[in-house]
Amino acid sequence: MGKIRVGLVFGGRSGEHEVSVRSAASIYRALDRDKYIVVLLGVDKVGQWHKLDQKWLPKGAEMKALPSGDKSLVVQEEKVDVFFPIVHGTFGEDGTLQGMFELLDAAYVGAGVLGSAVGMDKDVQKRLLVQAEIPVARYQVVKRGQKIKVDKFPVFVKPANMGSSVGISKCKSKRGLETAVTAALEFDTKVVVEEEVKGREIEISVLGNDDPVASVPGEVIAKNEFYDYEAKYIDENGAELVIPAKLSRDEVAECQRLAIKTFKVLECAGMARVDMFLTPTGKFVINEINTLPGFTNISMYPKLWGASGLPYSKLLGKLIELAIERKRVKDKLRRSYG
């Protein structure tokens, strides 16, 4: 069998554009060239697609001064066996890009249209988790023009469809709440206002399709008010990552069980990182799921699998295998009746 052609899709129109480019740079350097031919497909900030060469992924760089062109899909012109989307945020992690891959009848890494959309929308995501009796923090949703009433502080104000801590604020009193909501509404049409959960911040990586497995848990000890954008992607000293987390055997088993259940309830596939809190009473509370988690050299998802015995390069290979496997299964479905 010849080498597999991997279309690495990165960039995008969301506020997580720069994170995506950093993730893509790490993936590009780690993919085994004995097994894969990498086709770089960059999406600039206005949504134009570009077939790029290696020079567009220097360490830590942002895509700048991309050549102008129309929005024709270069993916249709370039033979690709499997797409590896690492476009974080809206227009990439929310099901829109996955829908395009489905229309192209292509294999692709990560969750499908439904899992991606639900995983991205913190409001709908929490509704499904509550229905499945998975514990989440108390929250309310605010849309443009709506009044907000909060009786208990502190709260976190988050755009409903955004990741990487973009647009998130912590409010300790009513003062500043309206400003925080207005700021979050710059990124989305609805905002989640969520009560703070006191406890340790635990993260787990999940890998698989129908029979997913969970990594060892890790703990994030933020140096700031919370695990913000800088700590996640830029400042290696912005947070202490304890891997594996110092938990009892029963606690490890429980948080892994909850992570896998969350993954399945939200119809995910391929990969996801599940974030949760361990309260002082010993109860786990799910914070959120990330269906296309960060893949930079300091990102939690690959670090957790590394600590579980699956190094970065082999993790990428497994994700590609899962994408191809899922495509084979779907190809066996009947597409006509009669």
From TrEMBL:
Residues binding ATP, per UniProt: 122, 156-158, 164-165, 194-201, 287-288
Keywords: ATP-binding, Cell shape, Cell wall biogenesis/degradation, Cytoplasm, Ligase, Magnesium, Manganese, Metal-binding, Nucleotide-binding, Peptidoglycan synthesis
GO cellular component, one term: cytosol
Binding positions (Mg(2+) 1): 275, 288
Pfam family, one: Dala_Dala_lig_N
Binding site for Mg(2+) 2: 288, 290
Entry EC no(s): 6.3.2.4
Coiled-coil regions listed in the entry: none
A GO MF term: D-alanine-D-alanine ligase activity
Pathway named in the protein's UniProt entry: Cell wall biogenesis; peptidoglycan biosynthesis
Cofactor mode of binding and number, as noted: Binds 2 magnesium or manganese ions per subunit.
Catalytic residues in the record: 16, 164, 299
Cofactor dependence: Mg(2+); Mn(2+)
Predominant localisation class: cytoplasm
Function: Cell wall formation.
Similarity comment: Belongs to the D-alanine--D-alanine ligase family.
The protein's name in its UniProt record: D-alanine--D-alanine ligase
Taxonomic source organism: Candidatus Amesbacteria bacterium GW2011_GWC1_48_10
Source lineage: Bacteria, Candidatus Amesiibacteriota
